[in-house]
Amino acid sequence: MRIELQDFENDYRVAKYGRFVVGPESDLYRSTIAFFSGNVTNSLTPAHNNVQFSTVDNGPESTCAQSFKGGFWYNDCHAVNINGLYLKGKHDSFADGVNWLDFRGYHYSLKFTEMKIRPH
Fold first, then answer.
1. pTM of the model
2. What are the start-end ranges of the E strands in the chain?
3. In the structure, what pLDDT confidence band is assigned to residue 120 with cuts at 50, 70 and 90?
């Protein structure tokens, strides 16, 4: 898996994962994320590995999905929220934008993110 991130100052970062597996529906699409490389700090694996997917109306962390405005592999909410609100850069609200904790933090919504998955 490859995740591309860009802020409004056109700083571009990439996170690559050699292993990304989405589990079956019966296990709420549990994530397996491993083997990181890239030019951004790995905010994804520590917080979102081995976690079930939650949406606003389903999943173990549905209150996080409601609070942070999108479905994701939440675990005690998030360090990465690439499905958050598009808030166009710096904002006052907490962690509800498109964010990657160790790249611009919770009070900055990224300009662009793209998650690419290649089958093996």
1. 0.91
2. 2-6, 12-22, 31-38, 80-81, 89-90, 99-100, 108-109, 112-116
3. confident
